[in-house]
């Protein structure tokens, strides 16, 4: 009897701790396979974080993606049963009061709102955070991680303070405060990723932050577009954007034409139109770090060359994207009065953008990094589509664009105009320099995002 009492007493003393340990192991087993990805911006316009979420899901993690749902993400993300998108509320600035007060109210609201969302989400082993924007997200994600046992991974795309400096100037109090905040709070993370070796070195030398370079790579859906799909895309876009419509109808009423292609009524075969215009593509967020007046000035020079008798094709220039300076540049474009060049500024569906890049003849990038340390992902996507690129020069562009190897680098509109003349001088002759660059891209081994992620990021989070 006494032995039974002792056994019962021992069981009552040791069973609760054992159950607690077992519960924690069970809870950690669930948590270890869950990751939260945070974008304090539009998810649909954050491709790298979408790719992180997809790669995590393919590696067996369940993923909660927090961000603003202003535009549609890629279909693959929406169709994954391992990814849940949770929308954040985007508070616009107040219409009254000093700008500092407006900004302060927005930051406080975002901090409280993001913390609430993080605390309501299932606990996770990791919180992946895009920076910028990191104010106030870095501190909020770190604090939530402390409370819930999550490790913070910061993916440095650029510096937020340098982007703010384009608008306010480098010595503005808000810019200096943002720099201090990023430098101090960036050290709170367990793991740091960045997009270039130049940024990795700068983080180490000037910020005391050790980071791992994870270069942007194109997703698998960025590839050359077959001619029949090009035709379908052009016909679809022609319903909304006149630049994609054929200038003349075919003599055969059953033949379907776009500005670039035609489909035979009987065979269904698609061919390029004889004398078609060249398709030049650029993409932008229409912000201060991209000066599109350079492209417009180069296009003016290109048109003057055509008027002077140079054997050059007419151009269709498609500039995709949304952003604060779009209206400003749209007015400039309307003032140009081009005759041989048509400019279109659409916002494309996520599935149409890769198809457009894979159908184009040349890509142009005007991204000048605000810090000089990040690389334009648009060029990565263009290379994935074997699309030759002309890119404006800045500090670390050589880590991506190799002049005269996979593209051309320019410094001003004069250089860009000369490059356009050179590349299109034999268009669409396959012996031209434009097609030589394309063949070079086809022959080069291009690592895709999934494979690169498995080699770089997956071992890091497995080790931590």
TrEMBL record:
It is found in: Endoplasmic reticulum membrane. It is a single-pass membrane protein. It comes from the Eukaryota. One of its GO terms (molecular function) is chitobiosyldiphosphodolichol beta-mannosyltransferase activity. Keywords: Endoplasmic reticulum, Glycosyltransferase, Membrane, Phosphoprotein, Signal, Signal-anchor, Transferase, Transmembrane, Transmembrane helix. Residues 50-212 form the Glycosyltransferase subfamily 4-like N-terminal domain. Its EC number is 2.4.1.142. It catalyses: an N,N'-diacetylchitobiosyl-diphospho-di-trans,poly-cis-dolichol + GDP-alpha-D-mannose = a beta-D-Man-(1->4)-beta-D-GlcNAc-(1->4)-alpha-D-GlcNAc-diphospho-di-trans,poly-cis-dolichol + GDP + H(+). Gene3D superfamilies: Glycogen Phosphorylase B. One of its GO terms (cellular component) is endoplasmic reticulum membrane. InterPro entries: ALG1-like, Glyco_trans_4-like_N. Residues 1-22 form the signal peptide. Pathway: Protein modification; protein glycosylation. Mannosyltransferase that operates in the biosynthetic pathway of dolichol-linked oligosaccharides, the glycan precursors employed in protein asparagine (N)-glycosylation. The assembly of dolichol-linked oligosaccharides begins on the cytosolic side of the endoplasmic reticulum membrane and finishes in its lumen. The sequential addition of sugars to dolichol pyrophosphate produces dolichol-linked oligosaccharides containing fourteen sugars, including two GlcNAcs, nine mannoses and three glucoses. Belongs to the glycosyltransferase group 1 family. Glycosyltransferase 33 subfamily. This is Chitobiosyldiphosphodolichol beta-mannosyltransferase. The gene is ALG1.
